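Saturday, quiet lab. Running sequence design on the structure tokens for the scaffold JK sent over.
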């Protein structure tokens, strides 16, 4: 990214050695780094202790099996020399039985161990704040309802703003401007499903195209993944225990509806070994996504901010460790510039460690200003994952011709959560006369310049 494209203050990551919960050898030597990360994430470290114990049990069984095999080989040689020696035959039978029992046991131990291993979160960067989110920057000028100025100043003491007389919540906008039909959606599909109608339907598609064109023209590979993936993909691209309750599963099949394009894009290069010259590899992925959003009842569930079915444009990067910081800053700047082009003021924050994605080493959120709600709301997440996904999906690169292959590092960053961005854009582009002006870049693509309140 050129200097003139960087508008967010540069975000630094530490020199933390790139770690992965799949680095079993490191955990065996010293699990203190992982224990520290569990504490920072406010997670019970019992999971880690159970894994270490199960791994120890597995190694003990492996040693026993090796000893039994060695004994059996010796006895087999003796039996061949001492034909008819019943005592040796009985010893061989006993050893075979013991080995069968251990081989049966080790299957269960390995299964339990691997399930625990796949649930262990990533290490946490020392520069990630522990207790509270840290604001990196606020860009753009929030429009603040004149009746809510005092509250805004209290919450955002150093942020410049513009007073306005008319603000409206996205929930009221989509009703009054007849942009969705929630009633029929709920009747035919269930709660938090709806029909997009009129201008909103066209703006939905146009916004996705606008985001994809920006990334494609910046050198990203455009990709639209399958919307159904196997369990293997979900349990290796993320910690499935964190996502499974939110996933829609196809009954009777090993298939899940994807919750984000990131997961199938992460798995797209499973088993591939790149040359260093091929990196960084950048993807711009569009997908429809599905989440049950379990546990979010009553939280942002009105309107189009949080629903079970939504569209997204995701940024995903495969790189080597030296370029992680540069790539993270590129992804963040891409989304910030995109949102500002839609007249959406943004706040960039470092999440506290307890609120991070489990697979993230370093995590930054982008929030948009919602004037009708007088608050910033999440519009994007950007995270360095390091080698965590790569070790699970076996994605490597060759640093040079003389060096062995090493695991790549991955980074993800939201470009566009379509419905949330539409909700935020509607609130920010509402004029004092009640007309919603469509930002020029989006108007050029959609052919819609403004939205007026329905006459009836």
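Result came back. Writing it out in full:
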């Amino acid at each position: 990214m050129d200097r003139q494209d960087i508008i967010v203050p540069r975000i630094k990551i530490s020199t933390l050695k790139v770690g992965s919960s799949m680095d079993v050898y490191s955990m065996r030597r010293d699990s203190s780094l992982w224990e520290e990360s569990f504490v920072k994430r406010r997670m019970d470290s019992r999971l880690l202790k159970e894994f270490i114990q199960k791994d120890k049990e597995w190694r003990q069984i492996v040693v026993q099996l090796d000893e039994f095999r060695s004994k059996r080989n010796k006895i087999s040689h003796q039996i061949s020399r001492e034909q008819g020696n019943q005592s040796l035959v009985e010893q061989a039978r006993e050893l075979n039985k013991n080995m069968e029992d251990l081989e049966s046991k080790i299957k269960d131990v390995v299964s339990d161990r691997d399930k625990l291993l796949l649930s262990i979160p990533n290490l946490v960067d020392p520069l990630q704040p522990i207790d509270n989110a840290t604001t990196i920057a606020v860009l753009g000028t929030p429009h603040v309802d004149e009746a809510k100025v005092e509250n805004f100043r209290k919450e955002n003491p150093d942020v410049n703003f513009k007073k306005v007389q008319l603000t409206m919540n996205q929930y009221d906008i989509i009703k009054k401007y007849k942009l969705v039909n929630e009633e029929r959606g709920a009747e035919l599909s269930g709660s938090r499903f709806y029909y997009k109608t009129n201008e909103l339907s066209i703006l939905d598609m146009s916004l996705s195209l606008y985001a994809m064109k920006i990334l494609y023209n910046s050198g990203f590979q455009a990709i639209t993944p399958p919307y159904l993936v196997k369990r293997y993909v979900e349990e290796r691209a993320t910690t499935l225990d964190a996502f499974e309750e939110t996933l829609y599963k196809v009954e009777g099949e090993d298939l899940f509806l994807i919750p984000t394009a990131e997961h199938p894009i992460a798995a797209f290069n499973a088993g591939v070994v790149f040359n260093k010259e091929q990196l960084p590899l950048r993807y711009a992925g569009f997908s429809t996504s599905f989440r049950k959003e379990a546990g979010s009842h009553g939280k942002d569930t009105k309107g189009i901010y949080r629903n079970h079915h939504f569209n997204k444009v995701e940024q995903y990067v495969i790189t080597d460790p030296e370029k992680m910081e540069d790539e993270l800053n590129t992804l963040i700047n891409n989304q910030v510039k995109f949102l500002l082009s839609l007249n959406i003021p943004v706040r960039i924050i470092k999440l506290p460690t307890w609120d991070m994605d489990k697979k993230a080493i370093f995590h930054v959120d982008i929030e948009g200003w919602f004037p009708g709600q007088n608050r910033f709301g999440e519009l994007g997440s950007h995270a360095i994952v390091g080698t965590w996904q790569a070790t699970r999906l076996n994605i490597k690169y060759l640093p040079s011709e003389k060096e062995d292959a090493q695991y790549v590092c991955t980074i993800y960053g939201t470009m566009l959560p379509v419905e949330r961005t539409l909700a935020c854009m509607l609130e920010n582009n509402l004029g004092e006369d009640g007309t919603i002006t469509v930002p020029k870049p989006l108007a050029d693509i959609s052919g819609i310049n403004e939205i007026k309140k329905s006459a009836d």
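Notes for JK: The chain is about 40% helix and 20% strand. The chain has a mean pLDDT of 90. Ask whether to fix the surface positions before the next round.
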